[in-house]
Design goal:
Helices cover 63% and strands 0% of the residues. With 130 residues, it is mainly alpha-helical. The structure holds zinc ion.
Length: 130
């Protein structure tokens, strides 16, 4: 429930992850922000426009050639959110390197509940996983 409490985005606030002076909407933060785009590029997930969020999600899932789209997308989005919160609540400068370390760490933990062949595919997709 803590997550939901912090999920609310203040209308009128600017995105802290990029220098575009863009309004921090959820679309900007997770899809259009150059910072987020770097993260999605690293995952090789591409978001296209669509009629609804589920449409956008299904298109990205279908285009994704790697394993475990859902786990990868959740870990990526969660850590984009954490980079944003790190700046807002602790003054930590957001960085792709910091995102990547946290993202791979969370994905590493996810591996414990995946079947061995899925883990092998994930490690191939993300050579940074141990
Ligand atoms: Zn931004």
């Amino acid at each position: 429930m803590m997550i939901r409490c912090h999920w609310h985005l203040d209308s009128g606030s600017e995105c802290v992850l990029c220098s575009q002076n863009s309004l921090e909407t959820s679309d900007h933060l997770f899809l259009d922000c150059p910072f987020a785009k770097c993260c999605w590029d690293f995952c090789r997930i591409s978001w296209q426009s669509g009629n609804s969020m589920s449409d956008i999600f299904m298109k990205a899932k279908n285009d994704f050639e790697g394993p475990n789209f859902l786990e990868v997308a959740i870990c990526a989005a969660w850590n984009i959110w954490k980079e944003r919160n790190g700046f807002i609540f602790e003054g930590k400068r957001p960085s792709f390197t910091s995102w990547k370390v946290k993202f791979l760490g969370d994905l590493q933990l996810t591996c414990y509940r995946l079947k061995k062949e899925k883990v092998t595919r994930l490690k191939f997709w993300f050579p940074g996983l141990i």
